[in-house]
Recover the amino acids of this structure.
């Protein structure tokens, strides 16, 4: 019979990297929202996450890198794959409206993250450059581009249209109407929705087949 030495107690199971990264980004978002980016320390983030403070540097490079990861976590959401794989609507008008409705819901769901990110981008030039690149590299742009390409194959979009640019324009339009108009100017929902639909109509006129 094998004996176990009292000096060799079972060690608690360590969380894998993905679990630690998620715990750190969740803790960071919570603390950044409560007390601001500048006053939050990496030690506080590690403590709330239940992870080593050193993992922030290893996984994210810096506290600012952790802030970027906060927004990227949303792209792992099941809703993203549902959006990517969902059926294309019966015509371009309905497809654009359906896609834009998804974008609006997504922006609403990440409002706490956007508040933290925007506040940091206003005062940190280097971070602002990194933040500006997020939509261009994210899955949201890739998936929206895929859906517009499917519309192009159906003959709904003018040949030669820059599909990626059209998708990026829709994302920035959504950010403007669903977040900035609300947070910066306190514009009522009905007015923001009406403005968004008017601008989406102009977008459609610019890309639909003539």
């Amino acid at each position: 019979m094998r004996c176990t030495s009292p000096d060799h107690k079972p060690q608690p199971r360590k969380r894998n990297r993905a679990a630690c990264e998620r715990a750190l980004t969740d803790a960071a978002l919570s603390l950044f929202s409560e007390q601001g980016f500048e006053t939050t320390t990496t030690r506080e983030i590690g403590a709330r996450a239940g992870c080593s403070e050193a993992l922030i540097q290893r996984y994210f490079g810096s506290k600012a890198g952790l802030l970027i990861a906060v927004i990227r976590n949303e792209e792992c959401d099941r809703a993203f794959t549902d959006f990517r794989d969902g059926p294309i609507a019966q015509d371009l008008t309905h497809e654009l409206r359906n896609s834009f409705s998804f974008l609006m819901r997504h922006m609403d769901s990440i409002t706490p993250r956007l508040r933290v990110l925007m506040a940091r981008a206003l005062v940190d030039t280097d971070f602002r450059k990194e933040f500006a690149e997020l939509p261009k590299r994210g899955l949201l742009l890739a998936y929206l581009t895929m859906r517009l390409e499917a519309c192009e194959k159906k003959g709904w979009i003018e040949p030669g249209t820059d599909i990626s640019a059209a998708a990026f324009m829709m994302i920035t339009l959504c950010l403007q109407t669903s977040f900035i108009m609300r947070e910066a100017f306190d514009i009522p929902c009905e007015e923001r929705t009406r403005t968004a639909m008017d601008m989406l109509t102009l977008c459609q006129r610019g890309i639909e087949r003539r």
User: Anything to note?
Assistant: The radius of gyration is 22 Å. DSSP finds eleven helices and no strands in the chain. Residues 42 and 191 are 41 Å apart (CA to CA). The domain at 17-71 is CATH 1.10.10.60 (Arc Repressor Mutant, subunit A).
